[in-house]
Amino acid sequence: MKHLLSIDELGLDGLNALLNLTDHMVEINQRPVPKVPALRGRTVASLFFEDSTRTRLSFETAAKRLSADTMTFNVSTSSVNKGESLRDTVATITDMGVDVFVVRHKSVGIPWQISEWTKASIINAGDGAHQHPTQALVDCYTIREATHAKSFSGMRMVIVGDIKHSRVARSNIQAFSMLGAAVTLVAPPTLLPPDVSHWPVAVSHDLDEVLPQTDVLYMLRLQSERMSQGHVPTLREYSEQYGLTQKRVMNLQAQAIVMHPGPMNRGVEMQIDPSDVKNSLIHRQVANGVAVRMAVLFELLGSGSNLAGQA
Amino acid sequence: MTKTIVIKGGTIVNRASEQALDLKIENGLVAQVGKNLKGDVQLDASGCIVASGFVDLHAHLREPGQEEAETIETGSRAGALGGYTALVAMPNTDPPQDSVAVIDFVREQGKRAGLVDVVPSGCITLGRQGESLAPMAELSAAGVSLFTDDGSGVQDASLMRRALEYAKGLGVTLAQHCEVAELTKGAVMNECQCCTNLGLPGWPAIAEELMVFRDIELVRITGAAMHFLHLSTKRSVELVRAAKRDGLPVTAEVTPHHLSLTEELLASFDPVFKVNPPLRSMHDIAALKAGLIDGTIDAIATDHAPHPRRDKEMSLDMAPPGMLGLETALGVVLAEGACEVRDVVALMSWNPAKIARIDDRHGLDLVAGAVANICVFDPEIKWTIDPERMVSKSINTPYVGRNLQGRVRHTIFNGATTVVDGQAQR
Known about the structure:
Chain A is built from eleven helices and nine strands. Chain A is an alpha/beta fold. Chain A has two domains: 7-131 and 287-301, Rossmann fold, CATH 3.40.50; 133-285, 3-Layer(aba) Sandwich (Rossmann fold), CATH 3.40.50.
């Protein structure tokens, strides 16, 4: 595997291989010294043009646990502010000797464009509203860990919120369906993309109707600017119709799982503390982030090395 | 004595005839049409169509202001290679073509290059800001007969009504870039299933169609002549067809790229495919082709829009829209098989010459006495482009690797060769 750009391009076999590999990484992370020499001498460059807490930190932690060197590109202090083009920036960093770029950008398609400009591997850590494949891997792994199911066949996944602007939704719809789940999208029509008739999903505008038939409830973040853009009249109205309240939690089946990719908008889509939800996996999603990203880095850079030994 | 040129062995396509005859050019005019003509210079045209030179209603020549992308000279040369003898220069220059000084400058630069007639269009509104009318009477007196704010549409319906009323008094034509801006904020590609997958903001067909509809109704009450630029949707074609049925003085154009390329190409994330209006569906292409055949669409125009390489290396949302067109228009149109060869001559020469009101010297039947603006092309030859060999200053062509059919062999502008055997002469 040369790049990780989208779930679609990864495919079912690639997805399963990475989830299986993650099991090994979880084991490494449980050791007293959670570090192996597998990627010694390799360099991972983080190229984040957009704010990120968990994705950037988990990639950097993952790289360090595999003994790779890391390079962090900080847009606010870089030559981008002197007008350097993205292509020149990528070429410059490539010249320093980089094996993989972890790229996040507000614009759709940037990881694909960069892959044309460098010999290094590219990991898409989020491009606009398009794809966020490592988040989908984290979510699938987390569900697998909680349910002990390798196939999601028969599972009913419900994704709630701003599907239109969500890269997490696009990656997860692909991943969940690939693994056999039935996916339902719940959102006001203004927060759905223009035409989802070709997606393998059902669509509902009534969360309360869907809740009792839900195995995994996946809440998406609603950004406050959606109100000024006219997608929803008020955050309060959105929250009443689509937010997770204590009452709605009560309507879930006992074993139903609740997830959120973070960062949460408390008081908007999450009107309760996740710790109040019995089967919330939100903290497991963060915890698994490092192991999943170790698996991705190892898959891209670790051919010929193994996971044995200590750093 | 100037040298005489004879075009030998081709088929001369005129409105009422198609004849295998030679054509002799002398002193800038067609001197004679007949058999076995001799001249100082002989141009072989065997297997070729000999027709009036092409007229592009829609070329962004970028000068003044964006000479990094194109100059009037390089754009003229690209035009000549594409078989053009006249280019209507779009007004979104910097400064824009809203004053006599800029209009005169563009025309003079065209004359200096001397490769095609550069016909400047004028802005409808000052600075293309959509707020107040440009001095249309002054510009008209300076020779402008086509006015447009191309790059954007005139959003204010009241201002557009006034512009049409004013234009009617001057006897000039307004050309509209149909796009309701509120519906296309941040838009990158056609609103469709593909844009749903890619998470890109969509440019819905209705943003074009609403303005086509509005302007047809404004033409109905004002009686002024109106030309619709680069139509891209099925419903737009239907609206214009109905307007023509009602006898309204409207004309319309379509670009080669809207006849040949579809929205799915954006999934490559290559900004070379970003254009405004965006590439649409196969469905729309079929409707546009039907419009060409039944006469709803009068002209094929390039919307030649050069951009420097660095601008097309930005992300899809940041990169400017537009693609090259002058050197590939004929090859794309014939490869699409959208219409017969003589229809191509009508759509690329006769009709646009009339819309641009330059039919005293372009789009003429090739008979003795006509100004010698001529294009000689082989309608059958298959070819692919080499972007490095293109003469435009920019390289943002979407046709790399695609099979084209039909290529310009010779171009004659005002009786002088600008292209011989596919090579620019100057």
